Amino acid sequence: MDIVPEGNNFVIVKEIELPAMMEELEKYFPHSLKFHQTIKTYLSDRVWRFQFYRAKTWPEDPVCLHFPGCTYTPDNRTNESVGIFCPPDKLERMDLIKDEDILFEWHSPLYMNFTHVGIMFKMEEIYREKVNGKLDGHIYGDIYVHQCPAELDLTLEPLAANEVIMKPLCIDDVKDIHDLYPAGDIESLELFEKLVRQLPGFGVFNRSDNELAAWSLQSYYGGMFSMQTKPKFRRKGYGIQLAQSLTKLVIQRGYIPFVVIRPENDASRGLYMKLGFRKAFESVRGTFVPFAGENHSQIGLPTDVQNEISADDIPRNQHCTMEPSEVTNGIVANKEKNIC
């Protein structure tokens, strides 16, 4: 879409206003971290073409958007995907989105990358109310933020210098990187070309033939794309070497490192926890599709969301397609927290 200066309830944020917006978002760390650092990377490196919007009643209503929300969608329309932030204890303010018929095309699919689970639940409620829609193909990811600096100095076994070498990624590595990336359906090859040129990333290469064995790369949202290793090179310690090196560099560049880890990926979780990362909240990515019909499977929101999503925000007779064992309030319970 062409640049739309304002919608019903949202107005575009001028570049000169973005630093002040970042300062306001810092009040809501860690939940706002991804949106905050997307702005920071945009201002510093211009990796991708984003349009940022805030509620017209900002900061009283701390709801903000960016279009696109990811860098690849089937029709590559700017408003075909979106990034959204709203504090998880203020989700009722997302009613501003429900009434936003200028910036959103409710009769078309809407793609969203990993976003706080409470926001995604609220968006599904909005889609269902407006166009009988649902969240389809959702994938869960836990957000782990670097919180324990001392653990980053963990002494690691050195790489076998006669077998492999770790060095910065270059443009010739982009195809291998994109082929290994598990979310290549929502992030474009062009994005990775820009990232390799403009943001730090490391690869471990086989000395004999220069084959890329593993890689890690800072993303356009300021965190780190999950480290990927080719199957035949796994269990050699390459991943933790890459993660340690990139985490240190991301910190030096003024960012707070964070990663998205699938709940079932015990290996990645253990690797990043050794380096000082701790779970901050839970997120979901997926596609909101309209006109899903009356009979799609719907599950009620469990009661353990209530310390972030109040009973007044989401009536108990509302339903969503998230499985009950997977839908949570997105905040880490005390028993799950790990002390540095």
Q: Bin the strand percentage.
A: 15-25%
The CATH architecture designation of the largest domain is: 3-Layer(aba) Sandwich
Number of domains: 2
State the shape: globular
Uncertain runs:
296-319, 324-329
Widest sheet, order of strands: 1-2-3-4
Helix content: 10-25%
Query: The biggest beta sheet, please?
Result: 4 strands, antiparallel
Q: Strand tally, please?
A: 14
Rg value: 20 Å
Helix/strand order, N-terminal first: EHHEEEHEHEEHHEEEHEHEEE
Mean pLDDT, nearest integer? Answer: 86
Helix and strand content put the structural class at alpha+beta
- N-to-C CA distance: 46 Å
Total helices: the number is: 8
Task: Kindly list the characteristics that best describe this protein.
2 domains; acyltransferase activity, transferring groups other than amino-acyl groups; Aminopeptidase; alpha+beta; N-acetyltransferase domain-containing protein; Acyl-CoA_N-acyltransferase; 340 residues; 14 strands; Acyl_CoA_acyltransferase; 4-stranded antiparallel sheet; globular
